[in-house]
């Protein structure tokens, strides 16, 4: 107990030191007395203080940004400690504050700030600032610097403290640690009470028996001595004294030594886990850390895993894979091969060049040199940047947390170095060579589409540009590099010629707004942005075989040699310094790097301008008129720019294909655009099946009048205090309509090595895996498919709503359908003979459903008392994804499942935003990643990679549970079996409390004779080898169901202990009956027989014999004999009036003693051995089968494992294919506000036009996407072209408006035609 207390005190002391270190971190606070910023501790920060923050400094409190050294009033943050993302976020100074160019003087600040009460919502913050002239200026979360974030790319920022200490949003999301007890420990405490009850019953029997025995004497026996008054004890009082005596005699029934032995066993288990070489990450030089010593056995009983996404499942590396431009798909096979062979190693330049090298077929021999010179130049730039970034990674892997050397997010080699597709690169260069020779009669729409596509990739983002030498210093001024072969005036003339050439084929895009009464579309002809470096024909049917001829290189008249010479001079000219891109999301970084690979390089960015280098080397600077950032409701972002040459106002938009396709201009009159849209949709479906993240790229041209009207409306919305969010959403929707589709991209999110295999193994082990992430919903769903958390044939329910009644209706409706399918599955399992285990996990979930839910809906569930319905639905789903979850919500979800289902939970994460769920789970695991050490400090175990979780649970978890469970059961058996020997003797000594065994031998029995073997057994025993445990993950269910240690096994063990004690006592009793043997001579054989029986019992339980275990058992028996011989030879008057002198020496010379020791232990162990033999012969469990496999030769082991796995897969297979699920993938889109006629959605088709229209959705009333639920992936391309089921919720095509609303249609075979842009979707109406 003292050792346990010391261990807990040490852990508390380490937490105290960490808290003290954080509280004494320094920051600069403005002092009114000194009129200067002075250094203070974090603990001294108070609300209302002015705090000055510098670059790479951690924010000490929630601070409202009042000043930034950036002229645009922007401050950049790294929020890894809050949301787990290493990318940068932008925060803006409160609008309306003057003097951003001058120093901020707190003395002159006289405004009054009013804001909301402290809360734990990390994504919302509202308030206003009342200035001295009574003008009110509203602000939101964009102006709040949250505690725990880090200032980046900003030299100085000044703000006023809004929330401090425990009122900050980060602290409110952390509930603090809790004391964790393992399930075995809790079970053991209950059994201790049962042993106390058993002790009470045995003592009561002794007291009653003594009272009855003394009452049988007619006269007081000679040993009954009266007191000084001559009075004798009454039978009742004598019985009470006997009761107390029996407690002292039988108190060893309570295994106090068990607690000390368990601590030693767990310490040995932790040592073995820590030294497992398979759990060591060589790249990061990090072994596993076991920070908690009291819950190792819980690793073998996990039923639910709650995982973070970013940095836990993924490496947060987005890699550009494929794209489609103007209806033509470019597969980027060279890039795919690079990714397959790429390893994150420090390759030398030669190997790296070989890996990246590609050869482009030139149009002719004269241009071969031009086509081959540019790529090596680009590679040299990538190599220089790559070396520096890897230097940062190495320094971080050693455990140093130097903020000034922070690694640039999304800038690893595998993300930056995109190998261009040879066809696409050749088309781009051909278009560049044709530019000077274009005439007004040559159609240029294809060339324009290619140029606009790559310009959109480079411009439509919020990426910051820095140099490789100074990765945190923004590039705001483009380098003065202009190739000598062409001038800006010449480029301007070329763009004018391109514009004239496309006038005859342009089309207009206009939009009328009922709210504004003005048109935001271009009233004049909409011109696709002409630019250099583009070219290809997207419609080969319109041009015959011209495109093919250009592909094959038959056309040699590409243009004058002057432009070719210019390109050659550019490739050989001095190269600009290597650039680093810091993006808010990995998708943006991947797209910018892809554009750079095709020589559309983002050179610099400021809030007002963005500069792009074209393939010819010309720098074009676009004026940024407005930026509409990405949000989870719109699922898109847009940037409004003014073209520097054509002076047109162009809107570039990128976003989810499900949204962009709805916003395209109705091109029914133009067959070409309609054909491009259909081709692009097919390519998107292809990308989706490959698990790629898809984004659509579109554009729109505005005239000056429409833009000015929209800009005025936007400024009014930004200045509004009430309904500000709704007004901003409305303005964004007015701008992003009637777009022109340019193309789409497919991006792969790089998972950590071994994540899919680990998740599949854990699934086979019966573990349910949830993902709780603060990331976007689309990102989480894509990752779920990539890591096999969701299957392509799963029906995925996605529930997003902001209304409690809607949320409850959605839960009820979805739960009803899931229950129907779940009940239909049960008879099939019985028919095919799959018998569930006796202690199966509660209601095994269906394998056909997945659930996706967002943070706002989770808030409604917790606040509206819908927890039971949510749990009832979630437990029946294969996987659950909770997106946009706050740290507090993560912890609440874990506690909800623990409390409602009584299951064992494990939480794993790598950032400070995961601390809450790590502490709430039964087992918390932190990943030693790149997001600080907060998760590791709060965790019970720390690993370097997610794949290590497989062996940690399936092998070490199984071993720890099996060993400790058997050890606990053995200790109970050992104590009960030994104590019962004394209890049976009481029936022959008048329940007087006397013993037939010497007291010293009784004391040493638990202390020395039987203490070491159980400890070694709990540390070293292996019931199944590690290879078999990894090959058969189903073996893990043995610990999940607590098959080794539960109430039934405890009772059976107690009965077995009683039986063995009866044999060990009464066999010697019958042998020595009617003899003149003394009491110690009678007790010594019983003691020896009991020791042999207990040691042999443990030998039967051992599955792995080691030399140390064998030596320990032999030493225990030898120490008993040596101690007894010495003690009996030396002890002349140790226990008067009886005397143990020379007893064992005399008995060792008697054959009867040896006969008893030889026959009695086998008789005592016979029932256990017999039952084990029957169990292994007739009802062999999976554990016994695995143990038999371990005894086979190595070659046969793998074959038997495969046979066993295939047999289980065959027995667990579905009897017949379900046409509704096998022929199509019915992914559910639950949208409570869709009109029934518009909700008939099927494979690749949407019946209604304008699902987002307010006319179809009359309940929305301007509320942005209220209750909208995203649909999920994806139908097979083949089934999209054939008739297939619309899913369990799809209404029939004949449903009239207003009919069937609020109920689930019974026609499950509804059919709908295909041809629209939507993928496989099923909808439900309420």
TrEMBL record:
<keyword id="KW-0812">Transmembrane</keyword>
<dbReference type="InterPro" id="IPR008250">
    <property type="entry name" value="ATPase_P-typ_transduc_dom_A_sf"/>
</dbReference>
<feature type="binding site">
    <location>
        <position position="914"/>
    </location>
    <ligand>
        <name>Mg(2+)</name>
    </ligand>
</feature>
<keyword id="KW-1133">Transmembrane helix</keyword>
<feature type="transmembrane region" description="Helical">
    <location>
        <begin position="1153"/>
        <end position="1171"/>
    </location>
</feature>
<dbReference type="Pfam" id="PF16212">
    <property type="entry name" value="PhoLip_ATPase_C"/>
</dbReference>
<feature type="binding site">
    <location>
        <position position="774"/>
    </location>
    <ligand>
        <name>ATP</name>
    </ligand>
</feature>
<feature type="binding site">
    <location>
        <position position="693"/>
    </location>
    <ligand>
        <name>ATP</name>
    </ligand>
</feature>
<feature type="binding site">
    <location>
        <position position="890"/>
    </location>
    <ligand>
        <name>ATP</name>
    </ligand>
</feature>
<feature type="binding site">
    <location>
        <position position="913"/>
    </location>
    <ligand>
        <name>ATP</name>
    </ligand>
</feature>
<feature type="region of interest" description="Disordered">
    <location>
        <begin position="391"/>
        <end position="412"/>
    </location>
</feature>
<feature type="binding site">
    <location>
        <position position="310"/>
    </location>
    <ligand>
        <name>Mg(2+)</name>
    </ligand>
</feature>
<dbReference type="InterPro" id="IPR023299">
    <property type="entry name" value="ATPase_P-typ_cyto_dom_N"/>
</dbReference>
<keyword id="KW-0547">Nucleotide-binding</keyword>
<feature type="active site" description="4-aspartylphosphate intermediate">
    <location>
        <position position="308"/>
    </location>
</feature>
<dbReference type="GO" id="GO:0005789">
    <property type="term" value="C:endoplasmic reticulum membrane"/>
</dbReference>
<feature type="binding site">
    <location>
        <position position="775"/>
    </location>
    <ligand>
        <name>ATP</name>
    </ligand>
</feature>
<feature type="region of interest" description="Disordered">
    <location>
        <begin position="514"/>
        <end position="560"/>
    </location>
</feature>
<dbReference type="GO" id="GO:0045332">
    <property type="term" value="P:phospholipid translocation"/>
</dbReference>
<feature type="transmembrane region" description="Helical">
    <location>
        <begin position="1077"/>
        <end position="1098"/>
    </location>
</feature>
<feature type="binding site">
    <location>
        <position position="308"/>
    </location>
    <ligand>
        <name>Mg(2+)</name>
    </ligand>
</feature>
<dbReference type="InterPro" id="IPR032630">
    <property type="entry name" value="P_typ_ATPase_c"/>
</dbReference>
<dbReference type="InterPro" id="IPR006539">
    <property type="entry name" value="P-type_ATPase_IV"/>
</dbReference>
<keyword id="KW-0067">ATP-binding</keyword>
<keyword id="KW-0256">Endoplasmic reticulum</keyword>
<feature type="binding site">
    <location>
        <position position="309"/>
    </location>
    <ligand>
        <name>ATP</name>
    </ligand>
</feature>
<comment type="similarity">
    <text>Belongs to the cation transport ATPase (P-type) (TC 3.A.3) family. Type IV subfamily.</text>
</comment>
<dbReference type="GO" id="GO:0016887">
    <property type="term" value="F:ATP hydrolysis activity"/>
</dbReference>
<feature type="domain" description="P-type ATPase C-terminal">
    <location>
        <begin position="936"/>
        <end position="1178"/>
    </location>
</feature>
<feature type="binding site">
    <location>
        <position position="654"/>
    </location>
    <ligand>
        <name>ATP</name>
    </ligand>
</feature>
<feature type="transmembrane region" description="Helical">
    <location>
        <begin position="1110"/>
        <end position="1133"/>
    </location>
</feature>
<feature type="transmembrane region" description="Helical">
    <location>
        <begin position="1044"/>
        <end position="1071"/>
    </location>
</feature>
<feature type="transmembrane region" description="Helical">
    <location>
        <begin position="190"/>
        <end position="213"/>
    </location>
</feature>
<dbReference type="GO" id="GO:1990531">
    <property type="term" value="C:phospholipid-translocating ATPase complex"/>
</dbReference>
<keyword id="KW-0460">Magnesium</keyword>
<feature type="transmembrane region" description="Helical">
    <location>
        <begin position="233"/>
        <end position="259"/>
    </location>
</feature>
<feature type="binding site">
    <location>
        <position position="308"/>
    </location>
    <ligand>
        <name>ATP</name>
    </ligand>
</feature>
<dbReference type="InterPro" id="IPR023298">
    <property type="entry name" value="ATPase_P-typ_TM_dom_sf"/>
</dbReference>
<feature type="binding site">
    <location>
        <position position="884"/>
    </location>
    <ligand>
        <name>ATP</name>
    </ligand>
</feature>
<dbReference type="GO" id="GO:0005524">
    <property type="term" value="F:ATP binding"/>
</dbReference>
<dbReference type="InterPro" id="IPR001757">
    <property type="entry name" value="P_typ_ATPase"/>
</dbReference>
<feature type="binding site">
    <location>
        <position position="630"/>
    </location>
    <ligand>
        <name>ATP</name>
    </ligand>
</feature>
